[in-house]
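Sequence in, structure out.
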Amino acid sequence: MRKWNTLISLLVILLFVFHAVFGGFQLAGIMEGGSALMQVTAWLMLGLIILHALIGCVLTGQTLKAVRKSGVSYFKENKLFWARRISGFAILLFILFHVLIFIGRNEGAFRLNYFGTAQLISQILLVITVAVHVITNVKPVLIAAGIPGLKKYVVDILLVLAILLLLSGAAFVIYYLRWRMI
């Protein structure tokens, strides 16, 4: 189950990069309209995220069962484990807001719903929770994927992630400002 979760995680990351780049272009006004490819990849990514979350819940349940059986939780020693789980659940909440904000069709034409201050805050929080979740999980995913030379890749991945998330956050702010000017 852990190998499947690793594969799913890697697929989600690839789809996320595609979604963030082209979605950012749309929000910034560089690219017009919502393409069918963007919609398909977004829904595929959502399905994979839900599957990833379900596997995570099963694995967390197994961990809690082992903790209960042993009678010792070692909470202080497992803070990173809980940061991973909590950030994952936070992502699910903010993805729900993301879907509610950015889904919309009106007689075949793509349209977006109102994007005000609350929507901007929820999307910036999505960017932050994704950053926390990926940063806390990048090493275990690389180890599980059997990628050698871990330290070299971690720094590269985190740099690309930082740039991508900065641009995503900037795209949300640009979109917010574009709404304010309408």
